[in-house]
Amino acid sequence: MLYFIGLGLADVDDITVKGLRIIKNCKEVYLETYTTILQVDQKTLEEYLGISIIAADRELVELSADKILTNARDYDIAFLVGGDPLSATTHTDLILRAVELNIPYKVIHNASIMNAIGSCGLQLYHFGETVSIVFWTDTWRPTSFCEKIVANRRRGLHTLCLLDIKIKEQDEASYMKKTKTYLPPRFMTTSQAASQILESAKELQVEDIINDKTLCVGAARIGWSDEKFITTTLRRMADEVDLGRPLHSLVIAGQLHPLEIDYLKIHTIESSFDQLALEHNQSLSH
């Protein structure tokens, strides 16, 4: 059996009882390391579980998936994922390949950013399509994510923005060399994401829908011991807010319910938040 086991959002205490029982009975345990990070490192996880773990970066999974799958024919193999295994589509390919090879699999779910974002104060029922925002380069500045935010806001829906993570990114200068070198890890901040959203809105000429006064919520390290939320405008998020170390997420607010407004007041940095929320809602009602 090939098990996809969610580890939750933060540390070893987030592992489910079912997941823990299965992990301890598996012959091999892989830890996926390229879509998120945990509050604890691999060594701490190994000590808690009492097992050895194989770190699985994107390169290993893509190039050695056959080995993982082949071993799962004869043994129980665990593939550990921060958050929930299926909160993103990254691991769907591995599941589909297991199905093609008639290898049984099972998913052990856990908390993920997709449901834990409710901690920011916005109701999950009021969210539209989730978007991913990638780091821009000098030659690549995609804006399709902004089009989706616009579509959500036109329907009065909130948008969860998942921010880019670059772990073990190969140095372009080493592509032609036999020895690969990698760049230091990079994690997009809410400030960087807000800046790209505002620039995209200007380029797409949708500033009537997304602009400096649009309300947003910056979230950092949700589920960790030092999680943090800040509600402000996109402009202040871009220019003034520093939520500290990763991981960061950003929510662009849609139409706000009175209960949501009251909740957002808990962590807003705006002195006239009620007036901003009123103007925010009015901008979406036209």
Which helices and strands, and how do they pair?
Blueprint (H helix, E strand, L loop, with lengths): L1 E5 L10 H8 L3 E5 L9 H8 L4 E3 L1 H17 L2 E5 L10 H9 L4 E4 L4 H4 L14 E3 L10 H11 L4 E5 L1 E2 L19 E2 L2 H15 L10 E6 L7 E6 H6 L8 E5 L5 H7 L8 H12 L2
Parallel strand pairs: 1-4, 1-5, 2-3, 2-4, 6-7
Antiparallel strand pairs: 7-12, 8-9, 10-11, 10-12
Summarize the structure.
InterPro entries: 4pyrrol_Mease, 4pyrrol_Methylase_sf, 4pyrrole_Mease_sub1, 4pyrrole_Mease_sub2, Dphthn_synthase. With 286 residues, the chain is of the alpha/beta class.
Describe this structure in words.
This protein has two domains: 2-111, Tetrapyrrole methylase, N-terminal domain (Cobalt-precorrin-4 Transmethylase, domain 1), CATH 3.40.1010; 114-284, Tetrapyrrole methylase, C-terminal domain (Methyltransferase, Cobalt-precorrin-4 Transmethylase, Domain 2, 2-Layer Sandwich), CATH 3.30.950. The protein is built from ten helices and twelve strands. By secondary structure, the protein is an alpha/beta fold. The strands form three sheets. It has a five-stranded parallel β-sheet with strand order 3-2-4-1-5, sandwiched between helices. It has a five-stranded mixed β-sheet with strand order 6-7-12-10-11. The chain starts with a strand and ends with a helix. The mean pLDDT is 93. It has helices at residues 17-24, 42-49, 58-74, 92-100, 113-116, 144-154, 190-204, 234-239, 258-264, 273-284, and strands at residues 2-6, 28-32, 54-56, 77-81, 105-108, 131-133, 159-163, 165-166, 186-187, 215-220, 228-233, 248-252.
